[in-house]
Specification:
The structure is a single chain. With 261 residues, this protein is α/β, with parallel strands linked by helices. It has a single domain, classed as Rossmann fold. It is built from five helices and ten strands, in the order ααββαββββαβαβββ. Strand 1 and strand 2 form a beta hairpin. It is globular and about 65 Å long. The relative contact order is 0.12.
């Protein structure tokens, strides 16, 4: 694999600003300055609302959660409004594991680069971004093996709704099993896979976890107990939770590890 070209956070911010300005010029030209003004006001209102909730959760008294007897800060970031979803717990857990790895790292699904400056390799089937290799994880063909492979709420889409125009008849439930086998084959001896999976999103995947078809060496579970509070629990307490109810996005989360001896 060619050396990874890393996009810094400053480069991303510059690109986003240029994109906004170009969009404003286009709207003004196509629909007039009055329409642009009204649209800008609505956008500012949304951004102020976003800023309010961002600050509220950053300053909340319950800013930490416990996972495996360690305290982690809830991850609060404006991109994808992490406080509204499982990102608030899975990002700090996976980022902490990744930071302590001194070897080769692969991320499946481009998530962490939206929040940090990263230098590990990334595979994502669809997302076009600097440093991201577009490849189907179930057909993974990489020239080397890795000490650590991580994936944040990505594998539940494999074979389920991974394509933009998916249909139920085109689903391939067993494809995620193939994906896990491909990842295991991409590990070095002594390497480890760490994935997070939301419960209730892909029912077939939930069953495969429950019956051991996806055989984790270690499995941990987190349950959401309010809009932005999570507690560690066990599989029995999350396996029947629904995705999107009673709280938005995941209400239960599995953190699974697979080791290659």
């Amino acid at each position: 694999m060619a050396p990874i070209a890393v996009m810094t956070m400053a480069e991303k911010a510059k690109g986003e600003t240029q994109g906004i300005l170009l969009k404003m010029r286009r709207i003004s030209k196509e629909k007039g300055s009055v329409y642009l003004f009204k649209t800008t006001i609505r956008s500012l209102r949304r951004r102020l609302n976003l800023f309010f909730w961002f600050c509220y959760y950053r300053m909340s008294p319950w800013r930490k959660f416990t996972f495996q007897q360690r305290k982690y800060k809830y991850f609060i970031h404006k991109y994808n409004q992490t406080w509204r979803s499982e990102r608030t717990v899975e990002v700090p857990i996976i980022w902490d594991i990744l930071r302590h790895c001194k070897g080769e790292v692969l991320e499946v699904g481009n998530v962490l680069s939206h929040y940090f400056e990263v230098r590990h390799e990334i595979v994502d089937k669809h997302e076009k971004a600097k440093g991201v290799v577009n490849q189907d994880v179930a057909d993974l063909r990489l020239p080397k093996k890795y000490d650590l492979i991580v994936s944040i709420s990505t594998l539940e889409h494999v074979g389920w709704d991974e394509n933009p125009n998916y249909s139920e008849s085109a689903r391939e439930p067993d494809k995620v099993i193939i994906a896990f086998e491909k990842l295991k084959a991409s590990l070095k001896t002594g390497g480890e896979i760490v994935v997070t999976l939301p419960i209730g999103y892909n029912p077939y995947l939930d069953v495969a976890i429950g019956n051991g078809k996806i055989d984790f060496d270690k499995m941990f579970c987190l349950r959401r107990i309010s809009k932005n509070r999570w507690i560690e629990t066990n599989w029995e307490n999350v396996r029947k939770l629904k995705f999107g109810s009673p709280f938005p996005f995941a209400n239960g989360l599995v953190i699974g590890t697979i080791e290659r001896g």
